[in-house]
Design goal:
about 140 residues; mainly alpha; 5 helices; elongated
Length: about 140
Amino acid sequence: MFKTQGLPTELKVSYFIWVISGLLGLLFGLIGFFAIITVFAFAPGIAAILLIILILTLAVAAAQVVLAMKMKEGKEWARLALTIVAGISLVLTIFSAASAGGSSTGLGSNWFGFLVSAVAVVLMWLPNSQLWFKAVKGHA
């Protein structure tokens, strides 16, 4: 999982950004699960909705780790899928900021998370990364 020999520096950094953020998403999702269990005692309807959102979040975090590992293998479709994940992150961040009354600096804001994923996306599409994907495709 942590072997990145042969990857250009840009892809190594991008890979670790995706994997670490995905693993952190899984960890915080697990913590969130325990919080949702306590909410069931007070507001079961809200807790059920939160549980569905948490399951979707955990699925995205797990997919992010898997897609990063596929990207490391030279799969261009995984790179495209990670780019789409970052785009979805932008949309969700904007929606979250809008629903919070325009406040985009609070604890519920995800601008930092989006910016980190945007950096990872840019690194995946830089010319050196493009050359590596073409070279790997040529050897497959």
